[in-house]
Amino acid sequence: MEIRVNLGLLLLPRLSQGIMGTMNLEERSLSLQQVLEEKIAFADQREATALLGEHDEYLQVLMDNFDCRFISRGEELAIDGEAAVVRAAAQVVRELQYLHRQGTTLTMHEVRYSVGLVKRGKGEALHSLFSDTILVTSRGRHVRPKTLGQRIYLDAIRKNSITFGIGPAGTGKTYLAVVMAVAALRARLVEKIVLTRPAVEAGERLGFLPGDLQEKVDPYLRPLYDALHDILGFDTYQKLLAKGVIEIAPLAYMRGRTLEDAFVILDEAQNTTPSQMKMFLTRLGFGSRMVVTGDLSQVDLPRGVFSGLSEASRILSDVRGVGVVRLEALDVIRHDVVARIVEAYDRADKARRDSEKKSAELQERKTAALEKAAASERGEADA
User: Fold this and answer.
1) 3-class DSSP assignment, residue 169
2) pTM
3) Where is this region: Disordered (predicted)?
């Protein structure tokens, strides 16, 4: 990498002509000293394509977000412009290069998230974020946190016996919980993995569904299966399942058990009742770890039934050994449109709540006015 101060006139048009016209000679010289050109060398054309995009789509994101000039010359990228902007843009490219060289396939998420962090002044967190490898999947893929929220979530799982991961769809809360469970199993920190989930989405009781116990709960635990297949590979997953190292059970079957030396994951916990949640949490035994995941914006419980996840995360937030992490729309990893959909629904929900609050306040004022008028009429009648 080469950093060079550029005092030539080539970059002068990038500065405001009005501002330059009002500067004296010393001020102009100082301004010119703040103009940089930075060159970043790529290992080969393949690395250049990985960092800039197959059709320069990643480069276009950089150009849209940083007011400086990018010149791609085969296996080299030159960035020139105001010093502070050039350093920020170069930092993004260097961190993406580091991530690529660690074996991660770059996507639009890594590019845009890196740009966002640097522009918010949190660029120093990129390197530590991208260097935290949890494990390598059966297909050789390195699993790392992709957002600061995810890193906080993983740190909470490492530090606490019980961790609540609450957030919208696509934030990786379920997948990362499974990753941590497999990592703990590989490190022999636990002897088994227990997966459970309330079966209420379809409004059916398990007894009325066809098949044996596993076939009954399969549709509800599909996201957990998908994560295990991706991390372990199908054959390894089947072997561990047959040996009982991986156990799948509906939440109702947890009653009366004490789970020791196990990594237990309760998914879709927003659909538990307070009594179910208390029952589940008190199954924790020695040497065990629990992760409870859910999205409080997707409660499928009958009207009037309070979510056990909402209550537990509020009651237990200050209890030692319990961590509560709330992931946000910024932590959504899926498609960009998913993050925008989540934000749109959140705005709609807030508008609905505000409207309901205003309607309730208006109704209260009307009721108070009617009561006051009635009292006044009674007073006049008595007189």
Assistant:
1) coil
2) 0.69
3) 349-383
Q: Which fold would CATH assign to domain 35-131?
A: Ribosomal Protein S8; Chain: A, domain 1 (3.30.1370)
What is the CATH architecture assignment of 143-331? 3-Layer(aba) Sandwich (3.40)
Sheet of 76-82: strand order equals: 2-5, 35-41, 76-82, 69-72
Kindly state the tokens that stand for 173. Answer: 């809360």
Tokens 């059916």 belong to residue: 204
**Environment class of residue 293 by beta-carbon count within 10 Å: exposed (0-12), middle (13-18) or buried (19+)?**
buried
Instruction: Determine the Cα–Cα distance for residues 50 and 56; give it in Å rounded to an integer.
Output: 9
Nearest to 178 by CA among 270, 238, 105, 246: 246
Answer yes or no: are the C-beta atoms of 146 and 173 closer than 8 Å. no
CA distances from 352 to 81, 163, 307, 340, 348 (A): 46, 31, 20, 18, 6
Phi, psi (degrees; rounded to nearest 5) at 151: -65, -40
Q: Is 140 strand, coil or helix?
A: coil
- Residue of 162, 165, 131 whose CA lies nearest to 145: 131
* CB burial of residue 159 (10 Å; 0-12, 13-18, 19+): exposed
